[in-house]
Amino acid sequence: MKYSNLKRIIPLTLLASAATLVVAAPAPVTDLNASSNSTSSAPASSASIERLERLIKSRNQIQLQLQQQLDGLSQELSEMRGTVERNSYELDQMLERQRQLYIEIDNIRTAKPTVEAKPEAAEGGSTEGAYAADTNENAAYQNAVDLILKEKNYAGATKAFQEFVTAYPDSVYSSNAHYWLGQLYFAQKNDVEAAKSFAKVVSYADSNKRADALLKLGEVAKRNNNNAAAKKYYQKVVNEYPDSTTAKTAASKLESL
């Protein structure tokens, strides 16, 4: 090979080697996965936060509803308790009124009807005789008494005595009838009518129930917080019937005022 040809070949060889090195050199590497993960992770995190917020909000709503239901049940329970307590109190009051009425009934259960002086005849003394001449009058009075003593029909007895005192205003049983009415009204806590009936009894000067009627007027006054009037009636019993059992009761009540 000629020297001139060799000189041309060597530069070409070197140039080819350099080109091979350039082609074989590794290209710069870019982490595509890292870029892709960074881009996709942001929406995923945002969705998770939103889902968590929805769960928390839903839980809070459920808790609020439960609390409202508990508050409602508590209110209903409180109202039911109040109703039970009120009914219990009213029942106790009713039993106490019945007890008082039974005591009064026992006190006069064996008493015979007696002739009562009429108000206008009080100064002249009482009328003679044990029973009324009118059999219908006797029957009407006895029927009213039986409604209390035998049938325990107090509402019926109240009506019967009302009708009796209207039909027989001058009856020999008038004082007792008004006293029975007073007792029935007193047991019902109808103090206005009770006071009227007992005052009517007091107007019969010779009535064997007059002392008891005065005592009851004191009870009515005391129950209505009128201690001055109660004291007056109790003292009247003590002064006018000093040796009676009723006077002892009145004296005891005076001490408690």
How would you explain this protein's 3D organization?
By secondary structure, this protein is mainly alpha-helical. The protein contains 9 helices and no strands. Helix 5 packs antiparallel against helix 6, helix 7 runs antiparallel to helix 8 and helix 8 packs antiparallel against helix 9.
Number of strands: 0
The SSE string, one letter per element, is: HHHHHHHHH
Please identify the structural class as seen in this structure. Answer: mainly alpha
* Biggest sheet layout: none
Fraction in beta strands: under 5%
Distance between the termini: 157 Å
Overall residue-averaged pLDDT value = 77
Give the helix/strand layout.
Layout: H1 3-24, H2 32-108, H3 135-149, H4 154-167, H5 174-187, H6 191-202, H7 210-223, H8 227-240, H9 245-256
Distinctive features:
257 residues, mainly alpha
Task: Put the structure in a nutshell.
It is built from nine helices and no strands. With 257 residues, it is mostly helical.
